[in-house]
Amino acid sequence: MSLNLKTYTEHFTNPLYLESGRILEPYDITYETYGKLNDTKSNVVVVCHALTGSHHCAGIYEGDKKTGWWDSLIGPGKAVDTDKYFVICTNVIGSCFGSTGPMSPQYPHHNPYRYKFPVVTIKDMIKAQRILFDKLGIHNVHAIIGGSMGGMQALQFAITYPNFASKIISLATTHATQPWAIAFNKVSQEAILKDPDFKQGYYEKEDIAKNGLSGMAVGRMAGHISFLSHESMQDKFGREYRNTDGLYELFGKFQVELYLEYNGYNFTKWFDPLSYLYITKAINIYDLSRGFDSLNEALEKVKAELHLISFKNDLLFRNYEMKEISDTLTKIGHKNHHYLDIDSDYGHDAFLVEIEKFKEYIKDVLND
Amino acid sequence: MSLNLKTYTEHFTNPLYLESGRILEPYDITYETYGKLNDTKSNVVVVCHALTGSHHCAGIYEGDKKTGWWDSLIGPGKAVDTDKYFVICTNVIGSCFGSTGPMSPQYPHHNPYRYKFPVVTIKDMIKAQRILFDKLGIHNVHAIIGGSMGGMQALQFAITYPNFASKIISLATTHATQPWAIAFNKVSQEAILKDPDFKQGYYEKEDIAKNGLSGMAVGRMAGHISFLSHESMQDKFGREYRNTDGLYELFGKFQVELYLEYNGYNFTKWFDPLSYLYITKAINIYDLSRGFDSLNEALEKVKAELHLISFKNDLLFRNYEMKEISDTLTKIGHKNHHYLDIDSDYGHDAFLVEIEKFKEYIKDVLND
């Protein structure tokens, strides 16, 4: 069967009440669906994206070269089988792929929000999604799956809306962002803020898309380090040098340097710097325990069947951070949770590139 | 007894023939000595500094607040006992604390070299030191000690000048810089190069000293991540926030962010950006095997008693990189080498801050 990919943008005129006390009004949510909603609306699987991801998690647009970011996991006959499930993935608020973010027009004057955009949190992101699903007549779902910031959303769903999803699968994430990850985000934020072409937030979108923003490229390079591991870098690049004769040239380059340059500068052509600042802020302040006395108390809310998948040498979110969730759930007597630590050399990127290692697991969880 | 700290700058008019085939002529070497050279000149201990270190490894200058970078290790009655040993530490060529570097005047016109400065290597750095020692009438030494880039120099001494030192102690380093470390250097280099105030290398020293260079600050922040570990960051900063009321302020800050800002921006006031580019280049292209068929063959040169000290969660230079040196030495039948892997939560910084954990070891090695 076909993937049945459809992209929509839904406009909301009611205010979205944010965790900060501020409101977003009106706002848009762009989302994508795959497969077909069944008559009882019991076959919905929600997919949540990471920092720089989007609603486009599977399939390929006409004329594009790259598929959606989890295409090897989601599709007809795949682990998240769109012949069976109706998959929805929304672009988070604060992002730059259709949902309302800092460069969206602020009503009524239609100038971009820029710094007037409110800080949004992971909780706000899932609240907006929940409102969208309600509008679509979907009041509970079979499963929610996400990795990295997507995994944060999945866990936040489990706590904030305990009856909403039967199954939660959260990969390569944490219960509260630790200083190591905050530090990497800091390098990126600082690199953006100090780039004169960022114009203190008053840049023109078109200029960035055309010329890139070197500060954001530098920041993204730091990000890429955090996504990889010593082992994957050694395998991928070793000490390979572009031109051995140029070893003593100050600007001669190792393969790993070319990789970072390519990905860094390419990134600035498709991602918005203000969105980067706002979403990394959301990640930094993410803490499942906020509003509770402890992680214990927060996790006592969880009713769903919960699956936690970590990767052994993920250096951005360490596997012990996820194990702590699992251990806490065990301690408080949650009956139906499972923790899987996957051996991988890919570091944090494993949740995107080592699908082979967990797709059967996800398939079984969904079909169980 | 007193430390007997003395600082000198020696001027050399003969050309220094570099690994690249280029020459440096004339050149200066700034160095510091502690203790007293004995009559037989048999009590010399050479200390080698890291990337941003200097010849000032012990004691304190009048009016300064901070001591030399290894002051808790070196001094009267300390592990490197200046009552017993005559300690010499030189500022490496390429650096910015007195020895000739990219901002030194180029003869005969006296304008700074800037990009005309040749790429120098770890081998060049120790060659210059060797020439200095010769000039001082010191043709062999009791021991050479260094950590990080200082450890690279110590190892390079063992291979390039096998009869020069009786004992070599190398800490927190590697036999060849791996892509993980190169990647961190890349972020720093790129951040410097793309900063308009860097003026493509044609900045005024005074402007940087006065205003800082935000690109170098950003790069240094990335550097600091690589010096730390998940554990040390968790201990040191946790998720502490400067102002909890400001959690939803885009520019509200975690403690770890303030630490990076402070150290990043402070750094730009005392270190030269061109030196940073040149020294990180030297680190990137450092490879003990260069000029040999293999690491085996390179290490066959080693005659000294060799001590390798790694730190368990050093993320910049992994402990297994040093173990590889030890294993190779064992394989090729080198009789007198020792590998010590120290348990520490401090990451790479351990060689500077966890002196307690190895000072007795170093004392025993020197006094044996």
UniProtKB/TrEMBL annotation, chains A, B:
Pathway: Amino-acid biosynthesis; L-methionine biosynthesis via de novo pathway; O-acetyl-L-homoserine from L-homoserine: step 1/1
EC number per UniProt: 2.3.1.31
Name of the top EC class for this enzyme: transferase
Molecular functions per Gene Ontology: homoserine O-acetyltransferase activity
Keywords carried by this UniProt record: Acyltransferase, Amino-acid biosynthesis, Cytoplasm, Methionine biosynthesis, Transferase
Domain of life: Bacteria
AB hydrolase-1 domain residues: 43-354
Cellular component aspect of the GO annotation: cytoplasm
Example GO biological process: methionine biosynthetic process
Location in the cell: Cytoplasm
Known partners and oligomeric status: Homodimer.
Protein name: Homoserine O-acetyltransferase
Source organism of this protein record: Sulfurimonas xiamenensis
Classification of source organism: Bacteria, Pseudomonadati, Campylobacterota, Epsilonproteobacteria, Campylobacterales
Gene: metXA
